[in-house]
Every structure is written in C-alpha cells, then in structure tokens.
Specification:
The complex is a heterodimer of chains A (112) and B (114). Chain A is built from no helices and eleven strands. Chain A is mostly beta strands and 112 residues long. Chain B has 114 residues and is mainly β. In chain B, a hairpin with a 2-residue loop joins strand 5 and strand 6 (53-57). Chain B has no helices and eleven strands. The chains are: A mainly beta (112), B mainly beta (114).
Chain lengths: 112, 114
C-alpha cells in the first residue's frame, strides 16, 4: 500500500512566490524525508525530520511534521526557476533506517 | 567522483531477453537498494541488501534477481523481460543506524522493453 501521498500532484507558481507541498502517511514512522528529482535524474535528499521534531529549516526550505495528523508539509520560500522539479516525501517505517516508502510526488513548475 | 553510479543509463531490448544493470557506491555504506519508478513517477522499493545480505524483497517477480558480490556493489539481473518491466530503475545506498539515514541515488537506468 502507498504510505506517503503528496498533494497537490502538480503545482505551478511564479518565481519569487512560495510553494507548499503536503504529504500524508498511514503508519507510525521514525522519520520523514523530502527528496527532489530533476527531470531525467536521480532523487536528491533535501531534509529529514524525526518523529519527535515538529519543524525544521534548511536554507529556503521549511518542513513541518504533525504526527497526530500523520502529515508533513514542505515550504519553499522565494522560489526560483531552478526549483522546478518533482518533490517526494519518504517515510522510514522500520527501526533500522532501511525501508523507505515514497509517495507519488508533487510536480512543481516555477515560471520565470 | 560519483557517489552511486549505475550502468547503463539507457537499455532498449526486446521482450524475452535477459539483461543486467550494475550499481556501485563509493560511500562506504552498508545498505544498498533497487527502486523502480513507473511512468507515473511512483517509486517503489524492490530489494535492499545490508552487507551483501538480502533484507527486503518486496513482491517482485522472481525473474528479477539481485546479486551483491560485496557491499559496494548491487547488480540487478532480469530474465525473460516483459513489456511491463519498462520503467526507470534506481540504485541507492544509505548508512542506517547513524542518525542520518538518507538515501543517495544513482542517476537511473531507463529500461524500454519492445
């Protein structure tokens, strides 16, 4: 079954605007991670938030985690054309950090 | 230096053929994975190995056989290829138990079965 589900499936914004993507999951987790995938490339890790954390920042990225609602959000502030990519959340569901379940991703287009 | 490298990048083949995809990581990680990404971009784990030992084997046809000669290598062999095997296959690695269990991905192998 699909653990993480991102919404929206696709998002189109103007450069300089903020982009928010959401992820919902079903089972308990150890941590939740966000990845970016540029077209034709592998996924690149962006940020990891642990189950006992509520918010984390990295540069223009802000991630929140609400374990009571089993949801997370990724906010990209002051977006740039180079942020155009697909963004995936991944949940770590075992105790060994070896089983990551990905959602279907959000396709973000940042228009210049 | 590429951390996780997989070859080939593109693989076009006929139904019924057997093919292999190779993966190598130079990060010193103990765990390696194969993921399949379908045409809708959904990424699903196929296998994971920890120190050459199979630890995750999802519901994958037994035509798919991973092989790990050492912890830096995880190859994927596919027998009797079918049209539905067309997808992008990603190799990845991680170091679990460090508090930083992020995945490092290769650039993918796009498999097209004709």
């Amino acid at each position: 079954s699909q653990q993480g589900e991102e919404d929206p499936q696709a998002l189109s914004i103007q450069e300089g605007e903020n982009a928010t993507m959401n992820c919902s999951y079903k089972t308990s987790i150890n941590n939740l991670q966000w990845y970016r995938q540029n077209s034709g490339r592998g996924l690149v890790h962006l940020i990891l938030i642990r189950s006992n954390e509520r918010e984390k920042h990295s540069g223009r990225l802000r991630v929140t985690l609400d374990t009571s609602k089993k949801s997370s959000s990724l906010l990209i502030t002051a977006s740039r054309a180079a942020d155009t990519a697909s963004y995936f959340c991944a949940t770590d569901t075992d105790n060994y950090g070896q089983n990551f379940v990905f959602g279907p991703g959000t396709r973000l287009s940042v228009l210049p | 230096d590429t951390a996780v490298s997989q070859t080939p990048k593109y693989l076009v083949t006929q139904m019924g053929n057997d093919k292999s995809i190779k993966c190598e990581q130079n990060l010193g990680h103990d765990t390696m994975y194969w993921y399949k990404q379908d045409s809708k971009k959904f990424l699903k784990i196929m296998f994971s190995y920890n120190n050459k030992e199979l630890i995750i084997n999802e519901t994958v046809p037994n035509r798919f056989s991973p092989k790990s000669p050492d912890k830096a290598h995880l190859n994927l062999h596919i027998n009797s290829l079918e049209l539905g095997d067309s997808a992008v296959y990603f190799c990845a690695s991680s170091q679990p138990g460090t508090g930083d269990e992020k995945l490092f991905f290769g650039s993918g192998t796009q498999l097209s079965v004709l």
